[in-house]
Amino acid sequence: VAVATSAAPSARCAPVTPRVKSRARVCATVDVAEAYASAERFECTADALRALDEAPGVFSVADADDVVRFVGCGKRVREEITRAVERDDATATAAYARVVYLPTTARKAVLTAAWKTVISSLGYVPAMNAASAAMVKTPMFEFTSAQLAQLANNGYVVIDDGLGADASAMAQAARELFDRGVMRNLGQEGRDDDVAVLASGQMPKGEAFSALERCSKVLLDIPDALRRACSTFGVDDDSFVAKCARATAPSRLMIARYPPNGGRYVAHLDNDPNDPSHAEGVPGLRACDRTFTCIAYLNPTWDTSHEGHFRAYLGPTIDDDFIDIAPVLGRIVVFDSMRILHEVRPSYADRLAMTVW
Q1: DSSP code for 299
Q2: Collapsing DSSP states into helix, strand and coil, what is residue 256?
Q3: 312: part of which helix (H) or strand (E)?
């Protein structure tokens, strides 16, 4: 099985050391957890607050015993800290803060990711964040530095054992979905798969399908995982960072089964501007809205005689070099939906996968 070797990680931007009295020079990415751990704690006096930069950032406000009462973020960190101190009776006598400044271009997704990182690093949800505790979810997926670099540099990455110990149960649940007649062939020329399109928040009910929900949560966490990884490891490619910022978890996902009689899908792009139906459909679910494609393979007995590889072309045409990736159980492939021309090669065994765009 030909699987690409990991590219060398992109150069990492040095963490930012927050400053109170003047604007810190902020590089393109910030290691939020490291910067917060080393941030200077200061008392929120009127003079100290006036000295803060009016810049994007994430911060915490603690009481005199250094118990964090609130973690916040915003485009104007000075205003946000001032408001937080004013509305908390517990810090009326004395309040203490730590600040991590973020790039001036930081959007909501980056601010929210930094906010979650700080709360996760505390190990508890501050009292004034209790209403937002549901937003601080346990990550279902994380990229390594090498995996992020490969995706940024090559347009695709292969992650083995990405589904964890539940992979076999996930495969069994997907098979059960097909056996019950839920999947249908779409009748599209060039593709032979039977598919079920499911609402991402409403997986089929019953014990037989419970593992499908866990599988979907792994794939649906990948957009947030990309942003966490960009924040943690740093990426020099601004266009890639922008793509990660735009990526969102979809409201629908697809489970597909290719038949064992040579079922295939001809070469195509998942987001092809030349496709006449490129902008058709519901916003957020159109082909033109796709940023990254995420596929989890659910084939516990796969061997080389079954073929059915995922073929990713390393250039814009089928005459270019390619890599063949076997759809083995637990393997996840993530790729740039506009960049990677790909196909499913003829399969000679039932071939199951879950996909989100």
Answers
A1: -
A2: strand
A3: strand 310-313
